[in-house]
Design brief:
The complex is a heterodimer of chains A (377) and B (323). Chain A contains 18 helices and 6 strands. Chain A has helices spanning 2-12, 15-36, 41-44, 60-67, 85-93, 117-142, 147-154, 157-166, 176-189, 191-199, 207-214, 219-248, 257-281, 286-303, 309-318, 320-325, 327-341, 344-369, and strands spanning 48-51, 69-70, 74-75, 77-80, 99-104, 107-112. In chain A, the strands form 3 sheets. Chain A has a two-stranded parallel ribbon. In chain A, strands 2-3 form a two-stranded antiparallel ribbon. A two-stranded antiparallel sheet of chain A has the order 5-6. In chain B, strands 6-7-8-3-9-10 form a 6-stranded mixed beta sheet, sandwiched between helices. The termini of chain B are far apart. Chain B has 323 residues and is α/β, with parallel strands linked by helices. Chain B has 12 helices and 14 strands.
Chain lengths: 377, 323
């Protein structure tokens, strides 16, 4: 306990640590907030143009699409039924429109360029409609007395919007993901604590570590205490960030704040563990290690789609194992599970793998340092 | 009775280094078949120029560095990185400052002492004693950045000795230290030894080693070139006396005149000083002055000294300790 408290004291008295753990994320959050302006669904989402072939203009789907509204009665879709199938096909091919709907053999078909939230909304609404229509048909065949109840539920347009836009949060919008990314980034910053702890324990890293290695304190004990102290400080900084975003800037994290906090904790541990493990492998000064680990962190972030979203899907499609062993990817997957997919099973699956990788990294760090003699000091 | 005496003598060896060789990855042979033993109660000096292998020896001794051959025993046990029981009896003062810059003087000593001593009251007393020992009472709440070079060296020492180890290893503790702090440090080391600690002391300052060490090993290029007490070392060389005489009008022919005096080993000018090295035996000063008088050579001040460890090193290696 004494060593833990002294370590906390050491870390807190270092001004660089305090800035990067506590102040920098808050500054970045503030800049995000000022840059994106006041965030609300009503301001950021416009009415979406949907194209239906003129031949199908009397289909009930058109009526339903025209009826869906959000906010203060603002229409979600503007349905255009002026063109026939050939014209729509041509316009779609020329990229003049990014969606259209047509009926073929009584079945609803649609073409959508999937590149944004508007298209995601259209797709979600249509999928729901198609599923609902099939359900109603089946109920009519098997249990006709319940048709009215099913229809009522199916025709509730609000349901489409909620599921299509934000998973669990009806009031949030696509820009909120930037604040999730900010929390993810704050977690990856924890890797610098990992460098720091190895710098103070591994005999060939610093004079201080050399001295510590002569003492009778077990290496595993030192690693655990130093890691725990780093987790305490960095996680406290993350809690401060989440509280600042939620209560000061008014960012609405839906109904999963506790899960965000849990993700932040495991993310912090994984960041520290990754930084520590890489530090034991990389030979050289603290600055050299920081430089290399920063580069690796950026690469992991890139592969996680934090810079270019498509990269994440490319990795998932072509080398899924890379996504599974990339802590940053697992972290973003956790946030996506909470925000986009609304899939708690997937969330805990990713979080579990992240926790497991963290444990493996911490243990590997110990194995790398345990009983080690060095070539030079 | 005789065998008991031998046993007791062997038991007193608390450090045994046998045939240790160490080559760095850059192929530099740092230690070449190094062997030495340290007896309990000694102040054991490792003297040598920079790069002679002193620090490498210490780091191998402490199981920080790997080595390709040899054996090291401390307190009659093989030393390995995980022999925490042996480490508990050792104190180490590294050449580089190894303290937390975020902790005060008191907190630093308390932290390192706490890595050895769990009992809070006992630790408190030991920390106070260590602060007294290095005379840092007035600076106990200072952060290291606020301390001068000499004071921070003393803090570095206090962190290594506060837990009262049986064996204390000092690796060049006086580098870049002012003379006043240097004297304090040397006095402290002698005091520690008087309190019962065995000391291993490395330095390239021959005066320090000569001043405090009871047994001296002279190293060069990873090898021991001589060892013994300072008296034994000095007696092992041919030099008996060095004279330096200020000459008003130095001439080359004076050197030839002096070299004809019996037992003069060497003679040369160092600026305006005529340096005369004589062999063991009676002092040569009367003979030298006689030559000056006979040949009407005008001279000023005359300095005479007995051999130093630098002379020993010079005679054995052909170079000065600080080269």
């Amino acid at each position: 306990m004494r060593m833990y408290l002294v370590r906390i004291k050491c870390l807190l008295r270092n001004k660089d640590n305090v800035f990067w753990a506590f102040i920098f994320p808050l500054l970045l959050g503030t800049f995000f907030y000022l840059g994106f302006g006041k965030l609300s669904m009503d301001d950021s989402l416009n009415t979406i143009n949907v194209y239906v072939t003129s031949h199908d203009k009397d289909h009930q789907l058109v009526t339903i699409l025209e009826d869906i509204s959000y906010g203060d009665g603002k229409k979600l879709f503007k349905v255009n039924t002026s063109f026939d199938l050939d014209q729509l096909n041509q316009s779609f091919a020329d990229k003049e429109i990014d969606n259209f709907i047509y009926l073929q053999d009584g079945l609803i078909n649609y073409k959508i360029i999937e590149n944004g939230i508007e298209e995601t909304i259209i797709k979600s609404v249509l999928d729901k409609y198609i599923q609902g229509e099939a359900l109603v048909r089946k109920v009519m065949e098997t249990n006709p007395e319940n048709v009215e109840k099913v229809l009522s539920s199916f025709l509730n347009p609000k349901t489409y919007l909620v599921e299509a836009t934000s998973g669990t949060n009806p009031n949030s919008n696509k820009l909120i993901i930037y604040f999730y990314a900010l929390i993810a980034m704050a977690c990856t910053f924890a890797s610098y604590w990992g460098i720091g702890l190895v710098n103070d324990i591994q005999a060939d890293a610093s004079p201080l570590a050399t001295r510590v290695n002569i003492t009778p304190t077990h290496k595993l004990k030192l690693i655990l205490i130093y890691t725990l102290a780093a987790i305490t400080i960095h996680f406290t900084g993350n809690l401060g960030l989440i509280a600042y975003l939620k209560y000061i800037l008014g960012i609405e994290f839906a109904h999963n704040t506790w899960l965000i906090i849990l993700t932040s904790l495991i993310g912090t541990i994984s960041g520290i563990a990754l930084g520590a493990f890489l530090s034991t492998i990389i030979k050289g000064t603290f600055d050299k290690k920081s430089g290399i680990i920063t580069t690796i962190s950026l690469l992991l972030s890139f592969l996680s789609g934090l810079m270019v979203v498509d990269v994440k899907y490319l990795v998932q499609k072509n080398a899924p194992i890379l996504g599974l062993i990339n802590p940053t990817n697992l972290l973003t997957e956790c946030f996506y599970s909470l925000y986009y997919y609304n899939d708690i099973g997937k969330y805990f699956y990713n979080l579990g793998i992240l926790a497991l990788i963290s444990l493996i990294l911490i243990f590997s760090t110990y194995l790398k340092m345990r009983g080690n003699k060095y070539d030079s000091i | 009775m005789k065998s008991n005496l031998i046993k007791s003598w062997e038991d007193n060896m608390i450090v045994k280094v046998k045939n240790v060789s160490k080559t760095y990855k850059n192929r530099l042979k740092a230690l070449n078949n190094l062997s030495f033993e340290v007896r309990e109660g000694e102040i054991y000096g490792l003297l040598g120029p920079n790069g002679s292998g002193k620090t490498t020896s210490i780091n191998c001794l402490l199981s920080l560095l790997n080595y390709e051959a040899g054996e090291i025993e401390i307190f009659e046990e093989k030393m390995t990185p995980e022999r925490y029981d042996i480490k508990a009896k050792i104190g180490f003062v590294p050449q580089n400052i190894a303290v937390f810059y975020e902790l005060t003087v008191y907190e630093n000593i308390d932290y390192f002492c706490g890595l050895y001593i769990n009992d809070k009251e006992k630790r408190k007393a030991l920390v106070e004693e260590a602060i007294d020992f290095v005379s840092l009472n007035d600076y106990r709440n200072f952060y290291p950045k606020k301390l001068s070079g000499g004071l921070i060296r003393r803090l570095n020492i206090a962190c290594g000795i506060a837990h009262k180890p049986q064996l204390v290893i000092f690796d060049e503790p006086t580098v870049a230290v002012d003379p006043q702090s240097r004297n304090k440090i040397l006095e402290g080391i002698v005091k520690l030894n008087q309190q019962g600690a065995t000391i291993i002391y490395t330095s390239h300052y021959m005066e320090e080693v000569e001043q405090i060490c009871s047994y001296i090993v002279i190293m060069d290029k990873g090898e021991i070139i001589m060892h013994g007490t300072k008296e034994k070392l000095k007696n092992s060389i041919s030099l008996g006396e060095s004279c330096e005489i200020h000459i008003d009008n130095p001439k080359a022919e004076y050197i030839d005149l002096i070299k004809q005096i019996p037992n003069v080993l060497d003679c040369y000018y160092k600026d305006q000083l005529l340096v005369i090295k004589s062999g063991k035996g009676k002092t040569n000063i009367p003979n030298i002055l006689n030559v000056f008088t006979t040949h009407n050579i005008k001279y000023g001040k005359l300095y005479s000294s007995i051999p130093t460890l630098n002379d020993v090193f010079l005679e054995v290696t052909g170079k000065h300790l600080r080269d």
